[in-house]
Structure prediction request, 395 residues.
Amino acid sequence: MTNVPLLDLKAQYAQIRAEVLPVIEAVCASQRFILGEQVLALEAELARYSAASAGVGVSSGTDALLLALMAVGVGAGDEIITSPFTFFATAGTIARLGARPVFCDIDPVSFNLSPTAVADFVERCTVRGGQLINPDTGGRVKGLMPVHLYGQSADMDPLMAIARRHDLKVIEDAAQAIGTEYKGVRVGSIGDIGCFSFFPSKNLGAFGDAGLCTTNDAELAERMRVLRVHGGKPKYFHSLIGGNFRIDELQAAVLRVKLKYLDGWTEARQRNAAYYDAAFAAAGFAPRVVAPQAAVNGRHIFNQYIVRVQNRDALKDHLTERHIGTEIYYPVPLHLQQCFAYLKHARGDFPESERAAAETLALPIYPELAHTQLDHVIESVGEFYAKAGARQAAG
Ligand SMILES: Cc1ncc(COP(=O)(O)O)c(C=O)c1O
Prediction:
């Protein structure tokens, strides 16, 4: 039977092996592993790629978020508005700094933070000394962290308008969204800071953990560079308390090779998405399978291809039997995670996030997929609903 893994990084490695091994060897030969010429070059190349004036390479996407929050001065008593339907790090980094994540529900089509939900929350806030105050907690609402989930931009215009009106810092969680565009503008250059992840499964993946912060604010860039090395500048003189958030030279060297291929890989992902879309539409799968909707005025980079489906868990089991890899991103929205019980949320607080957690499934979308593999996924999905239809008719 045709095998379709969720992701096949070995196929990508076969393409770049001859180019990537010599740059690794060159870094090893130099024995310069920390903040050297590869990091500097990568930062410049990725800042340009993301239409930002500066890039600060860091140790992971999580550390990018942590560093960004530290750079804008988030701490105890502060609150950051964000989505409950995202990877844990989005809210985890807020909480690690002693700040409070304030969840607002998502838009059910894009799965991204709903500007209407954010506006409704902000409407309920009071303003004291020009500072937005959460009426439920008395905390200072200091910022907004939209997530560009799965590689599609959040609806940034209304979110930025709210942020400007209330002087909120905007940190874009662009971990899944390298090269994503919103109305022709690259994400990571829209808010105050953009945070990217180069976890191996991302469109631009390192050979381990790595990340990047982008900004158009020279002061913030400098602050992040200092915070990245424990807040020491000059070395051993600390005006700030930072951490070790450095990216390795080896990772930077690998990422620079891969960056040359990134647009080609992203276009292949987009072609695969279009192939699924057309097949699902032709087969009349809706409403049992709802394909992801890419905004017409954006650039969706399809880090993930997420369908909303009926009978999700049984479909996942069926696809596993058919040797097709799938994943649930994410089965438990953050407001219902045990570690956030202190936020006192209950089931039903964010119904669209809860519905997305129960109904969505990631299908294989990686660039090297063959048509035979895509066809096997499409046929297997069809087979599942045909069987379900037959069972229903019989029962
Ligand atoms: C939305 C989001 N935010 C943050 C992160 C954290 O990135 P990393 O795994 O590189 O720490 C991820 C990684 O998957 C992510 O998907």
